[in-house]
Input
Amino acid sequence: MKLRAASFAVLMLFTACSISADADRKYLVLPRPAEFKGVPFSDGVLVGGMLYVGGHVGIDPKTGKAGITAEEDAKFAMDGVKQTLEVAGMAMDDLVSVQVFCTSAADYAIFNSVYRKYFHGDYPARTFVQAGKILGESRFEVQGIAVRRTK
Output
């Protein structure tokens, strides 16, 4: 039953997302709150077996607002990365490199506590950088590169 629910969720995500192709590239755009519609970027670009995941901020996709806590922000950002990977037919464990930008390095441990829950095996290479202000008053922005695993 859980497998059916998960398959249905992925199917709904595929139908709700915009995917356009340009020769050997597929541009992925997830559903966005009204204030983020029409922004000039894709959530991911799939080229062959590689997916370049654009920056996902800690914004609740339903409200368009940052999370109340650093933990919520981290979860929203990581959920955006995960959804982009799923639309491309990939999983979090396909990530090979991740960059995390944060407004305060004091949130490092909080971010890590959320981040760990998204992986089953080894972790991708990662950079964690304290930056200035992040879009939407979020505390985090996460981007990455994934390589489709051969079976």
